[in-house]
Automatic annotation (TrEMBL):
InterPro entries: RNaseH_sf. One of its GO terms (molecular function) is nucleic acid binding. This is Uncharacterized protein.
Length: 85
């Protein structure tokens, strides 16, 4: 699996993921070291992720709230613009 992100300000490098992920892995390996610091450099940034289970788990949503991350709710993982890049 590959995890990636895009923004108006540029793109993340791709993270190659071996095996399955869970919410704790997503926080530890993606959100905390990569996303939080990136978003702090962009005032008013809104983070969007799809509805994959590891991304919408309560632990992830609580983490995002504690980090004051603004989340854009997504009704479907197939509506993400990165799916078309």
């Amino acid at each position: 699996m590959v995890w990636g992100a895009i923004s108006y300000h540029g793109q993340f490098y791709l993270l190659r993921i071996e095996g399955n992920i869970n919410s704790n892995w997503h926080i530890r390996e993606v959100l905390q070291p990569e996303v939080v610091s990136f978003l702090r450099g962009i005032p008013g940034a809104i983070y969007q992720q799809d509805n994959a289970r590891p991304y919408v788990a309560k632990t992830v949503l609580d983490f995002c709230s504690a980090q004051h991350m603004l989340l854009l709710p997504r009704p479907s993982r197939y509506m993400s613009p990165i799916e078309h890049v």
